[in-house]
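Inputs:
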Amino acid sequence: MTDQALPSVQAKTLKLSTSVRSAIQAFGIGFVFLAISIFFSLSSEFFLSWNNVSNVLRQSSINGILAVGVTFVILTGGIDLSVGSVMALVGVVAGSMLTLASPYPMPLGIGVGLAVGCFCGLVSGALVAYLRLPSFVATLGMLSMARGLTLIYTDGRPIPNLLPDFKWLGAGNVAGIPVPALILLAVFVIAWVTLKHTTFGRYVYAVGGNERAAKASGVSTRSVITMSYVVSGVLAGLGGLLLTARTTAALPQAGVGYELDAIAAVVIGGTSLSGGRGTLVGSLFGALIIGTLNNGMDLLGISSNYQQFLKGAIIIAAVIVDRSRK
Amino acid sequence: MQIQSSTKPPEEVEKRILIEARGVTKAFNGVPALRDGRLLVRAGSVHALCGGNGAGKSTFLNIIMGVLRRDAGHVEVKGQDVDFHTPAEALEHGVVMISQELSPVPAMTVAENLYLGREPRRGGIFIDHDKMSRDAAQLLAHLEFDVPVGARMEELSLAQIQLVEIAKALSRDADIIIMDEPTTAIGEHEAHILFKAIRRLQANGSAIIYVSHKLTEIFEIADDYTIFRDGQFIESGKIADIDRRHLVTLIVGHELETQNETQREKTGRPVLQVRGLSRKGWFDDISLDVAAGEIVGIYGLLGSGRTEFLEAVFGLHKPDRGEVLLEGKKVLPGNPKASIRAGMTMVPEDRKQTGLVLNSSIAHNITLSAVSRLSFRGFIKRRAVSAVVRKMIGMQHIKCSSPDIAVESLSGGNQQKVVIARCLSTHPTLLICDEPTRGIDEGAKQEIYKFLREFVSQGNGVLLVSSEAPEVLQVSDRIAIFKAGKLHGVVGASGATQQQIMDLAA
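Outputs:
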């Protein structure tokens, strides 16, 4: 009898210790975020003012939305380099429909914009899933094509005089909270439920973990892969809408380099670049950390040249700390 | 059953002891993995180290190789007390291990892999490619390994890669060679080439420590044996003095019931009908039926098209011609999803590559195929899912502390049960198994055989490939012999002998 009692006790302690460990792992990146916030709040009295916090939220929101989309792609074992360009394309297409000169209804402009983002994702996804191009190549191509289309569409000129209602999306507040932050919250909740509680979410992890096994288990791996790029494309489009709405005009050179911040947020959040492992909560904190760093360094009056360098170094350090803890 | 090796010389004087270990212990976090590891191997002998999964063999061998440090005990190599810290140190003393996990550089040639890190140089700087190729060719020719030295590793079959790894170890003047499951990935033909090489090494006075779950091999190649069970040394002696039954009993720890095939009632209703299936370069015009209540075994050498045929039936590859009917209905070719929906599932040959999502949990792996049925408009019904998981863990006797732990932390036998659980979760009428017992221990093997018999007794069918003739004979009702991509004949298993089916396949 004692022989049988022993394994169950062991099993319980094992379960306990793994759940504690996974909790620390899940919140580990939260501690990094907390440490950075405490540092800046001690260094600058403005940091914790509501004005500044809402500013950080507004700035982090767009990157957060992009990071959520990129998380889907990275979980399948791919990468999406095209989000910055897709943002710009969606921004100018929607922007051109929502100016004082040509005021289409808001839902139409936004809908067309998101459809453009969706289409870009569909093309990248199909190239990866059906033509078996490496995702790096497919989305690098999309990066250039989407930027090219943006420049062709605008002839390289900004589109000014956007509708005030549209600008509210980027600059407005609801109950003192920036609209982009509320949109990020909604996106995050929907995406989290999708990954956790739908078959599609389960398949995203399975495809990234072992594509062959997923296929042999009856998963339509190609449509799962394609769909993950569609998610990334649509969310890049949403990010592009918010970015355009926040600036005064739709700029053809908007969003340059945004893909790198989004990927950095995902990686800081602990998602494995080889796929199959990672969480959305991590990506969200990753985006907040990057936003906080940008803002905090501005507050401390660090010149932008140094900022660029420090940001890279801090990202690397955060990931090293995060990994050594595991 | 006693297999005699008639060619061995009569025992002369006892040969020199090359390696001796006594009372080796090791605990992980206070849990003993090895309580009393013992081994004594003499020059010029092949020593089988036997035991089930968890018997402590790997821990013991890793201690000898310097991968792990022992807690207590003695290890002597050629009479000298040793305590290796690294495998490199072990190699300096002539001890080398060929492990299950092969690590070639895929884009490099055979010769480059053989001499990786010790390339012959010209003037101390430039790699002497000519000499390297010459040396490599000579080495492989000497071992009679049929591997082209100029080929890149990625172009080779798994069997050839394995031969290169073995050649590499031998070329380092090792005289104590540990082979951990060297034949799991290679067919019988290659295994015999390997055995020839082992015999030659033996004649040269090397000692080989041979670990394998395949008992047939042990009786064929080994002179002596040592059995571990539950981290404990159990028995050691001469293979010639024991029979298969004795060995199995000691490995498992209790008598296994003999599973003599009782003839089952056949309903005759065909579950699977394959009609003229062909795929160019792999297999040609194969027609085969599986009836309800029947296990059909496919036996053939590596390269006979057996695995490719199974994969085409299941839809992992699209056949060029022919059709597959399940319960009389045509199955969409080249689409595993459609196959699963029609009612067939497949336990693939390689559970790490195609069977499991290793970093996912047991629960997620078990329900990967069934989750679409256990959902409503894409949303997973959590209760239904966890009910299936509980049921399958109970049914397949999967030993785990929680269904949420990663499947990679399980033993091979338990991992295979997870694959089978996943296959059963969609209630198939036909189960396709490719090497269902590869690399798992005797106890788990018997459980899988028992399960397959139960499965077909409920009116289902099983189509199975195995490279082990005794396994095909034990488990099948009929045996289809594959040879060079063609169906060479179908024989009833009850009257057939091992010799017979091996002759037909060769």
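Remarks. Confidence is low (pLDDT under 50) at residues 1-15 of chain A. Residues 80 and 139 of chain A are 6 Å apart (CA to CA).
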